[in-house]
TrEMBL record:
Residues 129-146 have a biased composition (Low complexity). PANTHER family: DNAJ HOMOLOG 1, MITOCHONDRIAL-RELATED (PTHR43096:SF52). This is DnaJ-class molecular chaperone. InterPro entries: DnaJ_C, DnaJ_domain, HSP40/DnaJ_pept-bd, J_dom_sf. Residues 3-68 form the J domain. Residues 70-117, 129-149 are annotated as: Disordered. PROSITE patterns: DNAJ_2. It comes from Kaistia geumhonensis. Keywords: Chaperone.
Amino acid sequence: MRDPYQVLGVAKTASEAEIKKAFRKLAKASHPDSNQDDPKAQERFAEINAAYEIVGDKEKRGKFDRGEIDAEGKPRFQGGFEDFQGFSSRGPRPGPGAQSFRWTSQGGAGQGAGDDDILSEILSGFSNRAGFGARRGGPRPQAPRTAGEDVQATVAVTLEQLMLGEKVQVELPTGRTLEVSIPAGTRSGKQIRLRGQGWASPDGGPTGDAMVTVEFVPHPLFKVEGDNLRIELPVSLDEAVLGAKVRVPTLGGPVTMTVPAGSNGGRLMRLKGKGLPTALGGHGDLLVALKLMLPDEIDPDFEALMRRWREAGHASVRGPEYGA
């Protein structure tokens, strides 16, 4: 494989953030899903992932920079048996009286007394660097595959979409656009995990996930209070004094509600089951706060009535706690 720095298009002095940024950009542009007409897209994508596996990992990057591993992550031998007298096929043969070594069928060695520790140290050194097991021909341990990185995304959802159970489009940093169903009971700020929709693994491991944060679009009429919705409903003076049947908007369409006679402004009415869908399959309630509204122009007869009401000395509506 080519030099991983060249594959990612970064300098050897690049920071971790610069390397990650370059990888994401190249992976997004070369992803096979986005290049279905290009037969070499899969090969490029695999090369990019393999390069990031080396220089995107602090420990492996250090080993590569020091020449301990190659561009494929395989160990490079830093010396051979030639470094040790008696092992080299080209070195001097042991002379008379020197201790000789012979390999046994178990993969160890037979030798004179006192050399066990030296040979063990040598084999251990090669085992650490080259991945050989303690026994010749024994199974090589398989390194766990690296999982792909998760990605973060945000999706704006209207209250109407949530009420109707409509799917919403989510744009992911990988370049994919998905249609996602928002589960009942989801509230603003909650995250939804989309399995396998993150970055691909650099070495064939599991693909990362997409973590999608739901954000509610502010509504001109309704405020969200948990599973409930709240709305301020303007009512006229005569409706408040005499009572009336009024139309109230809900997310499912307008309904008729009775305003009791003698209702004060701020009175809270409750419409059962007209709130948001819940995780248990039901709905919250709609809380209707009455907002008393006077006409823009005061009728002279109404004004005269209010003057007579004041002159009659009716008790104040404010108690002593308000300084009345």
